[in-house]
Specification:
By secondary structure, this protein is mainly alpha-helical. 39% of the residues lie in helices and 8% in strands. A two-stranded parallel ribbon has the order 1-2.
């Protein structure tokens, strides 16, 4: 959202806030990318790391990415997951993995393997 200008962190969101939506733009060069971090008060396009999966910016874009991940997992013959901790509230990741017919290779140590087995029951 290029109409917002200000220092990073100058805008704060309540976890229930869900109002800023718009087109997503990828930055082509390092200088342009760094300029955004210096002058854009909005966070990058990403879900917040919380149980509610708050997405204060570009919610529609994030939702489409989640739907695409589900489609890819459902269609895959093999899914490899590396270093991702299983958290029940991350349903956009773990629900499609529960139902996939493809083989899953999960690389996250023995405790991770036990968690994966428990989550697929």
């Amino acid at each position: 959202m290029e109409s917002f200008r200000g220092s990073p962190g100058s805008i704060r969101f309540h976890p229930s806030f869900d109002a800023i939506n718009g087109p997503v733009r990828a930055y082509g060069g390092l200088e342009e990318f760094q300029d955004q971090f210096k002058n854009n008060p909005l966070p990058p396009v990403i879900s917040c790391f919380d149980i509610a999966k708050t997405t204060p910016t570009a919610k529609e874009f994030i939702q489409k990415q989640r739907e695409r991940l589900k489609e890819l997992i459902e269609a895959a013959n093999l899914v490899i997951v590396i270093g991702v901790r299983i958290r029940d509230h991350d349903k956009h990741i773990w629900e499609p993995l529960k139902t996939t017919q493809g083989k899953i290779i999960y690389c996250s140590g023995q405790s991770g393997a036990n968690s994966l087995q428990a989550s697929r029951r």
